[in-house]
Each structure stands twice: as structure tokens, then as C-alpha cells.
Amino acid sequence: MQRHQIDNTLLHQAMLEENNMQIEEERIISKNDGKDFLNDFAECFNVMGDMILNSLQIILCLIILIVLFFAIF
Question: Is the pTM of this model over 0.85?
């Protein structure tokens, strides 16, 4: 009987520890939720800015090539 009670106590303690770990994990996730969104948004903005700059460079190179082509011929 006493061994059965010890097993139940250990099981209950393990369940409480697992529950505490889940609560802590949810707290960490909810705490980082807004920061992750802002970091992702900033990273997306940087990538879009780089893409726009690369596009402008390509367009500028094409314009220069066209101007040089007409200047030569």
C-alpha cells in the first residue's frame, strides 16, 4: 500500500513538473511573440529594400548601355 502511495506521489510530482514546464514555455512564447514579429518585419523590409536597390542598379546599367549605344552609333 505504501509503495503504491509513493508511486502515485512520484507520478503526481512528475505531472506537476511537466505542467510547470508547459506554463513556462507558453510564457516564453507569448513574451517573444511581439519582438519576433517586429524582427521579422524589419528583416522583410531590409530584404525588400535590397531588392529595390538591385532593381534600380540594373535599370541604371541598362539606361547607361542604351545611352552609350546611341552615342557610339
Answer: no
